[in-house]
Design brief:
The protein is mainly alpha-helical and 488 residues long. Helices cover 76% and strands 0% of the residues. The N and C termini lie close together (6 Å).
């Protein structure tokens, strides 16, 4: 039985290490958008290259995050967590030294592999290390401090871009890793490796990531001037074939990474459809808004980062209360109202143009956006956990988290194509502004679809279902992860 107490020195070291490790990945998921215009100017990158700078990371992270948790179960959670931190730091160093967009994109894909190892690993270490009486509080602190990291991310990223330079957005991870790894090896206990029944589905993970990569390539390449239609078509077909192969592999493996029978729960299927809608809109919104504020409104990177803080701050402050309210009202109402508020916020963003005033034009939209995310994120997680058997809650959360990330990366790939952004659009404020004005109604419509699905399909869970341990959450790119509850 795990016996580390939260009040002990070792308990504090475990919490410090896991927060530090997960914050590396959390920061990168929020700060890179702010750095994109400067990266593009410095490296002479097209808009497609900037899309890949975001999506290369998300492809490998979304495709491999379930496998990352399985590796920890099989080979030891501390071992895989440390490997993830080292891998992430090495890839970050390569990002920071990248001489051209191609190297940066490849390094971002490698970063995503490290993120897939350390993100579930940090939570699994807490679950496996702390005494059952302290576990929920430890997870809550881990989640809360991670939310603070997400809130600091855009501000820190903007300061680094305007100050030392965009490369330090990535290079900062190296000293953090040099601090994290020795502490983990000295103070964090290793959990049992070789746990019976651990899922280890490499083929499924590779096929899933390949499907995402090929479909993303087809969407991004189709938006380029003079694109190769044959390459786009072959990539799209290849992505569909890989997706079909992934489904077939998961259906026939004895111990699949993503068991198809988990979707026998209509509630689980419904809430994941809602997740796909809302996080597709969120992914497109935060990618384009960081560019809009700098390219069109004339904000510096620091000003753009600070401008986005209210949304994360509201989530961090009120997500726990939102979850408690949803426990009383049921998830249907907040999962309907939340996306509608976010849809309204995206329409309010149409006011953000050249020389936009922050208090008049930007802040109202972000406050409404934050209120909508507060309303929906905690009930979304609670409904995911309540829709499956308690023994599969950790798996259900991982699937939901991966679905959100996949939806975001598809949106980042598709929106420039749907709105007619050319490869150089982010260099021409008037062109980008016009495309942004076409993108926001699309994102808003996707959110309305999510609200309709929630109203039509989501029902109140039955009694005795599992409740989330991550009460506070500040990450705008994905819902919180919930781990398996270890035996006491």
């Amino acid at each position: 039985m795990p016996d580390v107490r939260l009040a002990s020195p070792r308990g504090r070291w475990v919490l410090f290490t896991t927060v530090l490790g997960s914050s590396m990945a959390m920061l990168d998921s929020t700060v890179v958008n702010v750095a994109l215009p400067t990266i593009g100017r410095d490296l002479g990158a097209s808009l497609g290259a900037l899309q890949w700078t975001v999506n290369a990371y998300m492809v490998t992270l979304a495709g491999l995050i379930l496998l990352g948790g399985s590796l920890g179960d099989r080979y030891g959670r501390r071992r895989i967590f440390v490997l993830g931190v080292v891998w992430f730091a090495a890839a970050s160093l390569l990002c920071g030294l990248a001489p051209d967009p191609g190297v940066l994109i490849a390094a971002r894909a490698l970063q995503g592999i490290g993120g897939a190892l350390l993100t579930p690993g940090s939570l699994a270490l807490i679950q496996a290390s702390f005494h059952p009486d302290d576990r929920s509080r430890a997870v809550g602190l881990w989640s809360g401090f991670g939310g603070i990291g997400a809130a600091v991310g855009p501000f820190l990223g903007g300061w680094l871009v305007d100050g030392p330079g965009w490369r330090w957005v990535f290079l900062l991870n190296v000293p953090l890793a040099l601090l994290c790894v020795p502490v983990a090896l000295r103070h964090v206990p290793e959990s049992d490796a070789g746990r019976s029944g651990a899922r280890f589905d490499v083929l499924g993970a590779v096929l899933g990531a390949l499907a995402l990569a090929l479909l993303t390539y087809a969407l991004i390449e189709a938006g380029q001037t003079g694109h190769d239609a044959v390459a786009v078509g072959l990539s799209a077909v290849g992505g569909v074939v890989a997706a079909v192969a992934f489904v077939q592999v998961e259906r026939h493996r004895a111990d699949p990474m993503l068991p198809p029978d988990i979707f026998a729960s209509r509630q689980f299927t419904a809430v994941n459809l809602v997740t796909l809608c809302v996080y597709a809109a969120f992914g497109g919104f935060f990618f384009l808004t960081a560019l809009q504020l700098q390219v069109v409104a004339g904000y510096s990177a620091l000003q753009a980062g600070v401008a986005l803080l209210p949304t994360t701050a509201l989530m961090l402050l009120f997500s726990a209360r939102s979850g408690a309210l949803a426990d009383r009202t049921g998830p249907r109402l907040p999962l309907t109202v939340g996306p509608l508020l976010c849809a309204a916020a995206m329409l309010l963003m149409l006011r953000v143009g050249p020389d936009a005033d922050y208090l008049r034009d930007v802040l109202p939209a972000l406050l409404v956006m934050g209120a909508g995310m507060v309303a929906l994120v905690a009930p979304l997680t609670a409904t995911v956990l309540a829709s499956v058997d308690t023994s599969r809650a950790g798996l259900a959360s991982g699937i939901n988290n991966a679905a959100a990330r996949a939806a975001g990366l598809i949106a980042v790939a598709a929106l420039p194509l749907l709105t007619g952004m050319g490869p150089e659009a982010y260099r021409v404020p008037s062109a980008f502004d016009a495309a942004f004005d076409r993108a926001m109604p699309i994102c808003s419509a996707v959110l309305v679809v999510g609200a309709v699905l929630a109203f039509a399909l989501v029902r109140r869970p039955g009694p005795g279902c599992r409740r989330p341990e991550c009460r506070r959450h500040g990450n705008v790119t994905s819902p919180p992860l919930e781990g398996e509850r270890r035996g006491s």
